[in-house]
Amino acid sequence: MNRAAAAIFLVLLCSACPKRLEFGPEGRIEDAQTLYQHVRERQAKVVNLEGDAKLHVDSPQGSGTLSTYLSITRPALIHLETYDFFNRPVASLVSNGERFGIYQAGQNTYLQGPASAENVSRFLPVVLPSEELVAVMLGQVPLLPPESMTLELDEKERVYVLKLQRGPATQTLRVDPKHLRVVKSEVRGVPGYDLAFEDFELRDDQLFPNKVHLVAASAGTKLDLKYTDIRLNGRPDLTLYELGAPEGAKVVDVDARGQEVRPEGPVSQPPPAPGS
Hints:
Elements: H1 3-16, H2 32-44, E1 48-59, E2 62-73, E3 77-83, E4 89-95, E5 99-104, E6 109-114, H3 117-120, H4 130-137, E7 148-154, E8 159-166, E9 169-175, E10 182-188, E11 194-203, E12 206-216, E13 221-232, E14 250-253, E15 261-262, E16 265-266
Parallel strand pairs: 6-14
Antiparallel strand pairs: 1-2, 1-13, 2-3, 3-4, 4-5, 5-6, 7-8, 8-9, 9-10, 10-11, 11-12, 12-13, 15-16
């Protein structure tokens, strides 16, 4: 065999060999509780984020992509601004964890009320509590408090498979064995949503996903968040989380369900039309 043929043979041989799994400094983890604790510790290292992103929504109510500026801080501080294709303001949302306000530029209307899941998720076709929305945008998975858990190593997918169980609910986490970061989460047995993280990059000593995918199958909804220019764990500008209506905007008070309220109580719904 000549040298050229030998080189080609070695290349083909090496390409056919599976790459060796890489583990972190801890080596291969065999205990589910140990991996669960490592996952929690890795997620806790990112506490705030500020910068720009693209938000794509695909839902029964419609689809589209918006440019987004966001500043979020654990556990529940949120400041989001969205812009259309022509960089015109669409909406802005602020929540301090207890109260929220959202300005709708097209209607020049400012809604305010308690920071319930229904209210802080008004700009999304899926309802998430403040703490979960912040966690997801920080590249983290809201974890099911487990009653029991199991751990396997999937050598084909090259991930740990950590399964959490609580009553009828299960959460299956696929975890990178080297960096111990969750790359995928699936919830079954109860209403929930699946998460996937991609395009990890080392940012300020933190391995962080540039892409976040959320799928709520029961609502027929998909959200894709792609970060373009962000900063992690900086000193947050707390003025961004101050509530207040823009000058000249119509102010509407809403209750925890998002219904308009007046001093005498919730606005009653109009009666159905005859024959409806």
